[in-house]
Structures are given as structure tokens and as C-alpha cells.
Amino acid sequence: MILSSGTKKPKIHPSAYIAPTATISGEVTIGQGCAILHGAVITAEGAPVTIGNDCVVMEQALVRGSGGSATKFPATIGDRCLIGPHAYVAGATLEPGCMLGAGASVYNGVTLKAHTRLNDGESRRPAGDFIEQIFNIERSPDAAAKAAQAYAQFLRKTHAQDAVLDAHANKAPARRSAGEEPPPQQMAEVDTVVDAMMLELQEMEMRRQEALKKKPKR
User: Fold this and answer.
1) Is residue 208 classed as helix, strand or coil in its secondary structure?
2) Which of 10, 130, 173, 199 falls between 20 and 30 A from 216, CA-CA?
């Protein structure tokens, strides 16, 4: 499902694959060659999400940009990152080449250096008191309750005007003739998203079949 949030719509490169059951919401940018698999959620709630080229977000993973009126935590995923199933990335930065194992989590304000690998279930949190830093609420016995109330109010306002956009097609692009220059890369709205991986698999199978036909018989 592809959702706009107010006037902000996802921008997805034509070569990216978006599974039919993934959810992409708000100010989200997805680069070329990415694969967003079934059940994954990528949502901009108060801050944008940017995913670089050739990234994989696996089943049931969550990538969230978060923030409110006082603080904002964009989620920035560098090129060639792999986010494992059920992983959680909220308001964090992953530099190129990072890999998160299943169920790993990275929280607001944290930066993972290039090529960092988190094991299954491993977590990286910001230093200091989480509620104070993330929600700007002073430490107290009821700080968590105050944070939940404030966040619920913010989310209701943020999503009040959400709208479902046309579903992406994931169509294979037309073949280019020999010697023809590829078109300039550009970001596209979700209705022009294509499944480049499927096209590559089809081309590989055709080449294999042609090679078998040319192989001399004994």
C-alpha cells in the first residue's frame, strides 16, 4: 500500500521492487535497484526517510522517520544496506554497506558506521535517558505515560489526511535496441515502479536457453 501524508508522497525509483503487501507512507525516497519485501513498512512520521541504491528491506521490517515540533529524526539508509526480517530502524542513520540481522534495532539519533553488522536481536540506542532525548519530557514516574499521550496526539494529527495512492505496477521496462543509450535516471511516482529483478531473471533464462541450443550434440 502506498500512502500520501498531506501533500507529501513517496518517490520510488523505477528500478525498485515494492512487494504488494509492503507499506510506503509519506515523505519517503527509495533509490534505484532496491527491493522492499512483503510486510515491510517504511513511513515518514514527522521526518523523512531516505533509502539509497541497491538496498534490501526484508519481510516485516520497519524503517521510520520520527519527530515532532521540537525534534526531528530522519531515517537515512545508505547504499547497499540490508535490513533483515523484523528489524527496526527509527530515526537513525545507516552508512553504506550496513547489515542488520533479524530483529535487530537501531533507535533515534544513532549512526552506524559504514559496513557495520548487527547480529540477530542486537540493539543500538542513544546515550542518556531515552524519553528525555526523544520526547523532550523530563524524567518522572509518569514520563512514559506523558510520552505516549503526546505521541498519540501527534500521530493522529499527522495521519489525519492520509490518502491511498494508485498501486505500483512493477512492470518490466521495454527492451532497448543494441547500442541505444539508457534513459537518464529519475525518480518516479509509485505508478511507474518496475520489477527490474524479474527482468534480469528473464534475460538470464533466455541466454541460458540460447546457449543450450548452440551447444553441439554428442
Assistant:
1) helix
2) 199
The pLDDT of residue 24 is: 95
Report how far residue 121's alpha carbon sits from residue 99's, in angstroms, rounded to the nearest whole number: 12
Report the phi/psi class of residue 124: left, alpha or beta, with left for phi > 0 and alpha for psi in -120 to 50.
beta
Q: What is the mean pLDDT of the chain?
A: 82
Q: In terms of residues, how long is the chain?
A: 218
Alpha carbon distance 121, 81 (integer Å) = 17
Strand partners, 13: none
- 184: in domain: no
Residue scoring higher pLDDT (97 or 133): 97
Residue 94 lies in a domain: yes
Which residues span the domain enclosing 56? 2-164
Total of domains in the chain: 1
With respect to residue 189, please indicate whether it lies within any of the assigned structural domains. Answer: no
Q: Which tens digits make up the pLDDT trace of 82-118?
A: 999 999 999 999 999 999 999 999 999 999 999 999 9
Q: What is the per-residue burial (b if ≥16 Cβ within 10 Å, else e) of 6-27?
A: eeebbbbbbbbbbbeebbbbbb
> Which residues make Cβ contacts (< 8 Å) with residue 140, sequence separation at least 6?
146
Parallel/antiparallel/unpaired status of strands 82-83 and 99-100: parallel
Does residue 111 belong to any structural domain of this protein?
yes
Q: Distance (Å, rounded) from C-alpha 136 to C-alpha 123? A: 22
CB 110 within 8 A of CB 95: no
Burial of 47 (0-12, 13-18, 19+ CB in 10 A): buried
